[in-house]
Amino acid sequence: MKSLAELAAIREKMQNKVVLREGSSDIRVVVGMATCGIAAGARPVLNTFVEEVANAGLSDKVIVTQTGCIGICQFEPVVEIYESGKDKVTYVKMTPEKAKEVVEKHLKGGSVIEDYVIKNI
Predict the structure, then answer these.
(1) What are phi and psi of 83, to 5 degrees?
(2) Rounded CA gap, 108 and 1, in Å?
(3) CB 3.0 to 4.6 Å from 36: which of 73, 77, 83, 90, for a disulfide?
(4) Of 109, 11, 106, which is closest to residue 117 (Cα–Cα)?
């Protein structure tokens, strides 16, 4: 880095990739990032959600955040989705491939993927 302009260009480039933030939105995606979640592969899942939400142009209505222990370690990586006026959806045993599918079918299409959901927790 040799100038402020170069630093500003890097910041602008990376700004599009940053969807992790606090605030209010219609949809909140929460990835469990406690030790058990990270050990089970939650970091690539979180990164996939951030990238896919940005790529899908959903950054204005979807917030991707992380949390500590969700309390169901045997089902890690765990992702909870909160939507205004709807019940929480808890996806379990997530992978980056499943995360891409959730963005496409649930966040964009509005259809919960029942095969990945755990009920009544």
Answers:
(1) -125, 140
(2) 38
(3) 73
(4) 106
